[in-house]
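Hello again,

I reread your note about wanting to compare the complex against the isolated chains. To keep things tidy I'm splitting this into two emails, and this first one only covers the full assembly. Below are the input lines as submitted, including protein chains and any nucleic acid or small-molecule components. They are followed by the predicted structure of everything together. The single-chain runs will come separately.
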Amino acid sequence: MPELPEVETVRRRLADRVESRRIDAVAVHDSRWCAPASTASIERAVAGRLVESTSRRGKYLIWNLDGGIHLVMHLRMTGTLLYDPEPAPIHGRVEFCLSDGHVLWFSDPRRFGTGAVIESSRLDAYFAERLGLEPFDPAFDQEHLFQLTRRRNAPLKSFLLDQRRIAGIGNIYADEAMFRAGVHPLKRPSTLTRAQAGLLRDGIVAALAAGIDAGGATIDDFRDPDGAWGAYQSEFLVHRREGLPCPDCGTAIKREVVGGRSTYHCPQCQPRPRVRRS
DNA sequence: CGACACTCCTGATGGC
DNA sequence: TGCCATCAGGAGTGTC
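Full-complex prediction:
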């Protein structure tokens, strides 16, 4: 499942291959991809544009096109961007023909992935209503996270997955960050001390940075634009490691469902909160 | 506003 | 071997 490190990996591996190219043609083969906008309106808006640069915000991948418009894509669960795939992908949803003759496919078996054309004047507002601070923003510090957690009483795991508070964390990196910080997924955010908020901030940044360094994590679907797997799944400390020894203390990692999401933690290193007020 | 249930979707998985 | 029910989960929407 692409999270911030996976989306950043896609962006980096694609940047040199799409920047300064023109999108000669685009064909949206699945109307869900851009709904409620029509496929025709997307094709009309994007075709003929130059990709001036690429960027990322949270888990959104952005192509900044000439004429002041932005193609904002989200891979969701199973989306991939594939460069010159052979043969054409079974689940190809969108096809981009670049001016240098190469072809890029947005492939997505589960069809959760999306794309939208946003004008420059609306871009900041588009993200502002969906996303909190970038974890690598210098402003994302101990105090910022501490303040975010005040009066938040849903499980910490759910808090970390809320993109409007912090952008880019998904199921994998939430578990990894909480382990690094030594805090339990069921802990109420409002009960974090300033020191714990600092540890959690550091854990988030370290886990995401390690994920980017490894080229992302492949659990079942994630591929980079060349179809290659990420490597970070082999470096998970707790995620998807039920029953395996904690890397710090050897205690068996536990899995439980929190907020409807599979959640992994070390029962020794991440002490369970005393009581959960209802 | 916060918290949470529900929805989308389909390949993979497990039971019989 | 085959069929069917269940599961996974990011983000948007709706409800209380």
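For quick reference: The first strand of chain A starts at residue 23 and ends at 28.

B.
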